[in-house]
Amino acid sequence: MQHSKASELFAKLPKAELHLHIEGSFEPKLMFEIAQRNQIELPYKSVEEIRAAYEFNSLQDFLDIYYAGMSVLQHTQDYYDLTMAYLKKSHADNVKHVEIFFDPQGHTERGVPFETVITGIHSALEDGQAKFGISFKLIMSYLRHLSEEDAFKTWEEAQHHLSIIDGIGLDSSEVGHPPSKFKNVFAEAKAKGLKLVAHAGEEGPPEYVYEALDILEIDRVDHGNRSLEDTDLVQRLVHEQKTLTVCPLSNLKLCVVSDMKDHPLRKMLEMGLAATINSDDPSYFGGYMNANFNAVDKALDLTLEETVLLARNSVTGSFAELDRQKELLQEIEAISAPYLHNV
Ligand code: ADE
Ligand code: ZN
């Protein structure tokens, strides 16, 4: 729901989504449909019952339900449908470029072949590009509660598909699983020229953000909220203009912030951090890109300048080719000009 000039402008602006777990976009209705066609019984009787279960006190609370939800996905068509549904929502929000995480280990450990997962997701991304003009990158994420040896097994399976994998990520239970645990497997990906990102500073301490920067040599920080506890770290992130992929509704639902009025997004922008807005797991947290913006705007009353900066940051922080970035930035300038100059 729009309630301000800023929300109206943000909805019109082209933007990039840089932090989205495709399995976290699994809407209950589609979950039921796929469960039914795969003859799997869900522990819920209705969409309402599923939604009622989406009350979380921590990241782990959420992850337990997230892994249970994705377990109905089995066939290429399931992954295709999941991804296409996300692209339709993104198209409605004027998202023009997406960088999607997928968790192969959440599927291969249940016996679904790696190829089934990536083929379904990638063919939907190709069709989405043709149909909606949404460009894309694909980021394979390792589950950090599993071992580095497990990550290496996934890395081996990915070798046949490196032409369609653009980056490597790190997600799942953060505390107790520092980035340094994945030093060697990230080094392999870097050597092959892949982009690197990692969830850090969502629940974990600033030290984890340092490790992600220094040991994994990441290109972007996913979340990064707890970086604000360390002024030297903030200075460094500003100096290096490292993009932070911030996820407001996720932060609220997973109790990273207790109230949206306390969300640090404005503070981040004021300090010069390259913050962006993203939806993380929109089906579980209550909304896609524009809903995330609207929730922060409602709480913090974002200015039009902040609105445009967020859209610009999403493009410049993306791994899109420079020509594509330039095209999107020009569109942002053209659409925002009448708002900024009060015409
Ligand atoms: N997997 C899906 N969403 C996640 C999040 N917000 N943090 C860590 N792992 C995740
Ligand atoms: Zn995430």
Explained architecture:
The protein has one domain: Metal-dependent hydrolases (TIM Barrel), CATH 3.20.20.140. It is built from 17 helices and 8 strands. α10 links the parallel β5 and β6. α5 runs parallel beside α7 and α8 runs parallel beside α9. The protein is globular, with a radius of gyration of 19 Å. 50% of the residues are buried. The mean pLDDT is 97. The chain binds adenine and zinc ion (ZN). The site of adenine has 11 residues, from α4. Adenine binds next to α4.
Key features of this structure:
343 residues, alpha/beta, TIM Barrel, eight-stranded parallel β-sheet, 17 helices, globular, binds adenine, binds zinc ion
Number of helices: 17
Largest sheet: 8 strands, parallel
Radius of gyration based on Cα positions? 19 Å
Tell me which ligands are bound. adenine, zinc ion
Secondary structure layout:
Blueprint lengths: L4 H8 L2 E7 L6 H10 L9 H6 L6 H12 L5 H17 L2 E8 L2 H4 L5 H19 L2 E9 L4 H11 L8 E5 L11 H9 L3 E6 L5 H9 L5 E4 L7 H9 L3 E4 L1 H6 L11 H6 L3 E4 L4 H4 L3 H12 L3 H13 L5 H19 L3
Parallel strand pairs: 1-2, 2-3, 3-4, 4-5, 5-6, 6-7, 7-8
Bound molecules: adenine and zinc ion (ZN).
